[in-house]
Write a structure and sequence with these properties.
With 363 residues, the chain is of the alpha/beta class. It folds into two domains: 170 residues, Rossmann fold (3-Layer(aba) Sandwich); 174 residues, Rossmann fold (3-Layer(aba) Sandwich), CATH 3.40.50. Helix content is 44%, strand content 16%. It has a seven-stranded parallel β-sheet with strand order 3-2-1-4-5-6-7, sandwiched between helices. Strands 10-11-9-8-12-13-14 form a seven-stranded mixed β-sheet, sandwiched between helices. Helix 5 links the parallel strand 5 and strand 6. Helix 3 packs across helix 4. The longest helix is centred in the first third of the chain and has 24 residues. It is globular and about 65 Å long.
């Protein structure tokens, strides 16, 4: 029996791979225990209990970026969190810590080292976050989702994919998925998604291009996100919803996708072989552009700046592409060949390899 502590959270990009690994451990080692470490404010506070795992929490401690009273207090708060996690490690008899970045990971790495147990890092983004950059120096193993990610001693494992995505890759059919989502079974289908909150620029362009798409005989599954003020709607050629609980079906139903370039999205769509037009989020450090770079260079996707993604772009570029079955087939194959579909297994094996005895129930 092995006791695992998986640290991460805040956003889906950290929580989803954490849960993918947790579920693989539960499936492979029914006698072992898996705990998640996060905060009470992040997405993990909802998703982790829903998946049946115990969530241990610490205070949210973002790294200070400029001089302030919080910056002065940060070292004391940080090491208080480290001591709190050390106590968790002792009480739960944790054998290994696996960190996915986010607020909980940095103190978890320090706590693991002080407790003299191994810790493993998984970095989902092409541009690594600060917690994982610092933690990589003393990690027992470092895993990355993208070959271009620069971290010390990194091993390429890909992205741990949710079990429903893995199942869709192996078993889904386009026709059944379309029918399940209220789409016509035999019509070219465009999937548009800006993530859980949505993307205004994507939404506006698709609404503006509705007439062009309809005239071209293209139906649209438009996931507008929780922040959108657009109404949900279903017509013969459009299914517009705020959320999609079955992204596996949405991916399987589509011939082409328009989306942001978050790490999970790039890896899930690429592993499935879904040709995609990636529109990186224009704010921040530009990590999304780097996430999609390898897949786009392979021919499995297209990259377009947010400022250039307009209704006219949909008319002039998207419609000709979704109508070109030969090019879509080439893109599909390229996306699959440049992606890793078994990232969960690869990460699981890497974690197992750092255990001191490496001889418990997973064998």
């Amino acid at each position: 029996m092995t006791n695992y502590l998986l640290a991460g959270g805040g956003t889906g990009g950290h929580v989803n791979p954490l849960l993918a690994l947790a579920e693989r451990i539960r499936e492979t080692e029914p006698g072992s225990n898996t705990y998640a470490l996060g905060t009470s404010e992040g997405l993990e506070s909802k998703l982790v209990p829903e998946r049946g795992f115990e969530l241990l929490t610490i205070k949210r401690l973002p790294f200070p970026r400029k001089p302030s009273l919080y910056a002065i207090r940060f070292p004391a708060l940080f090491f208080a969190a480290v001591k709190q996690i050390q106590q968790m490690i002792l009480e739960k008899q944790i054998d290994v810590v696996v960190g996915f970045g986010g607020y909980a990971s940095a103190p978890a790495y320090v706590a693991a080292r002080r407790s003299r147990i191994p810790y493993v890092i998984h970095e989902a983004n092409a541009l690594p976050g600060l917690a994982n950059k610092l933690g990589a120096n003393n990690a027992s193993a470092v895993a990355v989702a993208f070959e271009s990610t620069k971290l010390k001693n990194a091993q390429l494992v890909g992205m741990p994919l949710r079990s429903e995505i893995e199942s869709a890759i192996a078993n889904s059919t386009q026709r059944e998925s379309r029918l399940a989502l209220g789409l016509q079974p035999d019509v070219a289908t465009l999937l548009v998604t800006g993530g859980s909150l949505g993307a205004r620029s994507l939404n506006d362009a698709i609404v503006g291009a509705a007439g062009y798409l309809d005239a071209a005989g293209v139906q649209v599954l438009h996931i507008i996100g929780g922040n959108s003020e657009l109404p949900e709607l279903q017509t013969k050629s459009l299914v517009r919803i705020k959320y999609c609980d079955r992204m596996d079906q949405a991916i399987a139903a589509a011939d082409l996708a328009i989306c942001r370039a978050g790490a999970s999205t790039v890896c899930e769509f690429g592993s499935f072989g879904l040709p995609s037009i990636y529109v990186p989020y224009p704010v921040g450090n530009g990590e999304q552009r780097f996430n999609a770079a390898d897949l786009v260079s392979s021919g499995g996707g297209v990259l377009i700046d947010d400022s250039l993604f307009t209704s006219e772009y949909v008319r002039d570029q998207v419609i000709p592409l979704i109508s070109n079955s030969k090019r879509l087939k080439i893109m599909k194959l390229a996306a699959r060949e440049s992606s890793i579909a078994d990232g969960t297994d690869r990460l699981y094996k890497l974690v197992r390899s750092v255990l001191p005895s490496n001889d418990s129930s997973a064998k």
